[in-house]
Amino acid sequence: MRIGIYRGDASSGPIEKLVGAARDAADAGYASFWLPQTMGMDALTALAVVGREIPEIELGIAVVPTFPRHPIVMAQQALTTQAITGGRLTLGIGLSHQPIIEGSYGYPFDKPVRHMREYLDALLPLVRNGSVSFAGETVTARIGLDVRGAAPVRVVLAALGPRMLELAGGRADGTVTWMTGPATLADHVIPTITAAARAAGRAAPMIGAGFPVCVTNDVDAARDNAARTFAIYGTLPSYRAMLDREGAEGPGDVAIVGDEDTVAAQVAALGDLGVTDLVTSIFGSKEERDRTYAFLSTLL
What is the pLDDT of residue 241? Predict the structure, then answer.
């Protein structure tokens, strides 16, 4: 299992901070450097700059919302970043959440599975072969792109429900999850996506799992901190469903916390389940963050 670092805390920039964070991650031996697409910098643009400066580390986005960005635009941006970074991009895409898509953008969050199926019908041929001719109920894409030097882009889908997981395994290149505990990964996510990939005759999918991580001697305080820091995720329906499935009251219950031996055991257990890529979001006091960052690098 590969271990990457998720730096949502740096996603607003300035760009020098992002480049420095990626350089530190590469020097420490982390396999990948991940950004969100939220209210800060455009992640694809930022990673193009980061990748131009830091050649040693893979780059990932978890995730770009699909409703506001036409698949032709998404493909062109992704292929451009792929060309600039020498083929190191993993493009994570997802539906986002109904309150954001309808409240911020004013787009109807209508039939999300149909939307994602048609979005993939348009996006995947473009990022794999450079051209597409598709007309669906909600998406039309007819174009050829010429982004020279761009290798095909790996696309992973933020998938939690069974139909989205089937798309992630059968059509895309895998998934990256968040706020999804080990029991849910073991009995729901991994078997569903793996079966879908097998049924479609595709290679074994990437199974990325994002977790808050804190190496600490005060487990109760760390879980309380996680509950506060990541509280919003306990209110969003898709994450709430995964927390409920896990039997977790909130984000603090699925965070990876404990001393070095405890965290090492939890990380190893995720690899044993079949997680291919652990995406770590380090939290806690400065001392705890530094301790966690340094310890995780010893597991690489």
Answer: 95
Look at residues 279, 124, 115, 114 and name the one whose alpha carbon lies nearest to residue 213. 279
- Tallying the residues shown for the chain, one arrives at 300
In 3D space, the residue among 162, 157, 160, 205 whose CA is nearest the CA of residue 180 turns out to be: 160
At 115-156, the pLDDT tens digits run 999 999 999 999 999 999 999 999 999 999 999 999 999 999
Give the angle subtended at the CA of 124 by the CAs of 120 and 126, to the nearest 5°: 125
Cα–Cα distance, 249 to 254 (Å, whole number): 9
Q: Phi, psi at residue 150, to the nearest 5°?
A: -95, 120
| pTM, rounded to two decimals | 0.96
Tokens read off for 25: 């991650």
The mean of the pLDDT values for the chain is 97
Query: What secondary structure does DSSP assign to the chain, as a single string?
Result: -EEEEE-GGGTT--HHHHHHHHHHHHHHT-SEEEE--SSSS-HHHHHHHHHHH--SSEEEEEEEESTTS-HHHHHHHHHHHHHHHTS-EEEEEE---HHHIIIII------HHHHHHHHHHHHHHHHHHSEEEEE-SS-EEEEE---TTPPPPEEEE---SHHHHHHHHHTSSEEEEES--HHHIIIIIHHHHHHHHHHTTPPPPEEEEEEEEEE-S-HHHHHHHHHHHTGGGGTSHHHHHHHHHHT-SSGGGTSEEESHHHHHHHHHHHHHHT-SEEEEEE-SSHHHHHHHHHHHHHT-
| CA 258 – CA 155 distance, rounded (Å) | 33
Which among 248, 214, 213 has a CA at the least distance from the CA of 234? 248
pLDDT in tens, 64-112: 999 999 999 999 999 999 999 999 999 999 999 988 999 999 999 999 9
Give the C-alpha separation, 298 to 25, whole Å: 12
